[in-house]
Amino acid sequence: MRQFSHAGQWWVIPPGPSNSIADVEGVTVGHASLMDGSARTGVTALLPHGGDLFRQRPPAGAAILNGFGKSLGLIQVQELGEIETPILFTNTFSVHACASALIRSAIAANPAIGRRDSTVNPLVFECNDGQINDIQSLAVTEALALEAIGNAASNFAQGTIGAGTGMKTFGMAGGIGSSSRTVLLPGGSAFRLGALVLSNFGQASEFRVFGHRIAPQGIARAMEPDKGSIIVVFATDAPMESRQLTRLAKRAGAALGRLGSHLGHGSGDIALAFSTANCRDMTAKDDVVTASRLPEQHMNAFFHAAVEATEEAVLNALWHATPIEGYSGRKLPILRDLLAADAFFGNPDLAGS
């Protein structure tokens, strides 16, 4: 559901039924949050389909917009153009716990991995939640990662939950956000494109909504640099191969610019795109595989959809965030409260949208 009154003037491509990445059939998302002791963190899992990803591999492409990050598995995705595990999101110091969970899970389903079969490439994304979470506690475990995978469903929460629990965006509580678009092609074909973000980036003084600079008072004047990181994942049911998906992933940068980011030095801004069409069957023995492919002239429609879906996904992460007291007592403000309090300057008519 869209939460912003100016959406009809700013976004032009219609959303899917749930306006989330799960509008792409087969895609599910699950969370596991950890609020224990000094931990304010968690894991979010994205499953491209409900089968064995090691055996049925979706085509994928990735774009490193700014590489100040510690994500795992991107080198092989860029080289081979496919995904072979669920996609996990977590905090920076928990990447390896999540990777171990993915490896053990893949081996359990495919005991020949690393012996008779190839090794497996765990795909884990991260952002630094250290202002709210005591990141040095290394609190995320393999069990928590598996819990997030087990919780995956088409209906999922957004905001400060799972990997998004301790994240900050433009000086406010951020986290997990999602959105979708329905792409209609001239010949009558309809495809879905969805975006999921782990949002933890942005300079508060530069925050923009629908093109208007509406930086929150008090937060903006701290003038923190554009840093922190954002992960953007696109899913589509359109038959794109890895080169086209890499092109699609790059369009995340245009959306971040619309929101007020300049992809700052200290920000790890990474995008991945995958298609649920033409998954590679690793059990097939054919010498040649035939697959459908989207004509190149239709990519523009998906580029536009990717920019809109990413922008809205970040705003949805902000909208759904709830106040969480950090391990040191700090509590980030939330967008809903600031709008209700008319706490924005530069364009006050947006207050209460």
Explain what this protein looks like in three dimensions.
- With 353 residues, the protein is of the alpha+beta class.
- The protein has a single domain (7-282, 291-350), classed as L-amino peptidase D-ALA esterase/amidase (4-Layer Sandwich).
- It is 23% helix and 24% strand.
- The protein is built from 8 helices and 15 strands.
- The strands form 5 sheets. Strands 4-14-13-10-9 form a 5-stranded mixed sheet, sandwiched between helices. A 4-stranded mixed sheet has the order 1-2-5-6. Strands 3-15 form a two-stranded antiparallel sheet.
- α3 links the parallel β5 (87-91) and β6 (123-127).
- α3 packs across α4, α5 (242-250) crosses α7 and α6 (252-259) packs across α7 (299-320).
- Residues 345-353 have low confidence and may be disordered.
CATH architecture label name: 4-Layer Sandwich
Pattern of helices and strands: HEEEEHEHEHEEEEEEEHHEEHH
- Kindly name the structural category: alpha+beta
Globular, elongated, flat, extended or rod-shaped: what is the shape? globular
**Range of strand content:** 15-25%
CATH topology: L-amino peptidase D-ALA esterase/amidase
Count of helical segments?
Answer: 8
Descriptors:
353 residues; L-amino peptidase D-ALA esterase/amidase; five-stranded mixed beta sheet; disordered C terminus; alpha+beta; 15 strands; four-stranded mixed beta sheet
Give a brief rundown of this model.
The protein has 353 residues and is an alpha+beta fold. The chain is 23% helix and 24% strand. The C terminus is likely disordered.
